[in-house]
Design a protein that fits this description.
Helix content is about 20%, strand content about 25%. It has about 350 residues and is an alpha/beta fold. Strands 2, 3, 4, 14, 15, 16 and 18 form a 7-stranded mixed sheet that branches. It has a 7-stranded mixed sheet with strand order 5-6-7-8-11-13-12, with helices on one face. It is globular, with a radius of gyration of 21 Å.
Length: about 350
């Protein structure tokens, strides 16, 4: 017979484990399974921020002496590899904040996982604010994912370079370009560091103009989110949302989301889509702006609090639409709501997709 005292102890332990704010508290909710890929469709996978590191020196486990791991990133990569064929995955893009703390241990884990994609599917990485110093020094990213480690792949077009002394800032794959072909179309993908400065934008502008016949997808870290820098913790959740007007990296040289649009994005008629992350308490947001050529440009924010969630962008060439599915690979369910976003239409939606690629202004 179970004693009342023993039952009370067990019940208390469960309550503590599942209390709000505890690690076991779910932040992603859903029940529907992933529908089959339509005939002729292909998938571009977007990986939201992956800051769920555990072990020594990690924010989540400050007292741990265990080796550093990231089970959520491992699950995301494993799912991509397992479903490369049945989902017709043609490209993988990471929105940045690859690591939580800019340490050798975390970068080693990130490299161990992301290197599994090499030779399997083309991919690109965005350098987020957690991936470098506030002054833009990204030397640990460069050491683990240098341009030299990508040049053997035909889909890697190159990266931004400069001849200044500060070679740990912006260069050596911190800003990069890739290409792929699918559904009878050719694509250019540009990955821009968090708050990319003007010299980087000039490089991106040149690459986009030289590839004006391609459909352009851009991934950067900070674009959509809380518009003005919040002045309180509650502000990161409740303040007005849209294209951001504040920066975290590169100081006065850094460009915010609104400046990126004005200086670069609006000028290119072949720009089809912008992806970003960074804003975990905003979590999911979308905004469509109109470029100077009259072309609609959707911007999509996804930052699922570093849970094992992927954005699956299914391009249907015959119908000129993109079906955006947000999928939890651990629970094997489509995301319907999260801790901060209850509207399913921010997680699962369809975008019209202009079929033509036009020259830039």
């Amino acid at each position: 017979m179970i004693s009342p005292r023993w039952f009370a102890v067990v019940l208390l332990a469960l309550c503590v484990r599942l209390a709000p704010g505890a690690e076991a508290e779910p932040v992603v909710f859903g029940k529907e399974t992933l529908p089959p890929l339509p005939n002729g469709a292909f998938t571009v996978v977007v990986v939201p921020d992956t800051q769920s590191y555990r072990g020594r020196g990690c924010k989540a486990t400050p007292d741990s002496t265990d080796p550093v791991t990231n089970e959520n990133l491992a699950a995301q990569v494993e799912w991509i590899l397992k479903h490369r064929d049945d989902q017709n995955i043609v490209f993988v893009s990471h929105v940045g904040d690859i690591v939580d703390r800019n340490t050798v241990d975390q970068w080693a884990v990130a490299k161990q996982q992301l290197d599994k994609l090499r030779g399997i599917v083309p991919f690109g990485l965005t350098v987020g604010n957690h991936d470098m110093t506030s002054k833009g020094d990204a030397r640990l990213f460069q050491q683990h994912f240098p341009a030299s480690s990508f040049r053997e792949y035909p889909w890697y077009l190159g990266c931004y370079e400069h001849d200044r002394a500060d070679q740990n800032v912006s260069t050596n794959n911190v800003n990069s370009a890739q290409t792929f072909a699918a559904g009878g179309r050719r694509f250019l993908v540009i990955h821009l560091e968090c708050n990319a400065p003007d010299d980087v934008l000039a490089w991106a502008d040149d690459v986009m103009r030289k590839n004006s016949e391609k459909h352009v997808l851009v991934t950067t870290h900070m674009d959509l989110g809380i518009v003005e820098h919040p002045q309180s913790p509650e502000g990161y959740i409740r303040d007005p949302k849209g294209r951001m007007r504040w920066v975290k990296i590169n100081g006065a040289r850094g460009n915010n989301g609104e400046q990126l649009w004005e200086k670069l994005f609006r000028n290119h008629a072949n720009l089809k889509l912008i992806c970003c992350g960074d804003q975990s308490r905003v979590t999911a947001l979308r905004l469509t702006s109109v470029g100077d050529a009259g072309n609609p440009v959707p911007s999509l924010l996804s930052d699922y609090q570093s849970q094992p969630v992927l954005r699956l962008m299914r391009f249907g060439p015959e119908e000129n639409r993109v079906h955006v599915l947000t999928y939890d690979v651990e629970q094997s369910v489509l995301v319907e709501r999260t801790k901060y976003v209850a509207d399913v239409n921010q997680h699962q939606f369809t975008l019209d997709y202009s079929p033509g690629a036009a020259s830039s202004r």
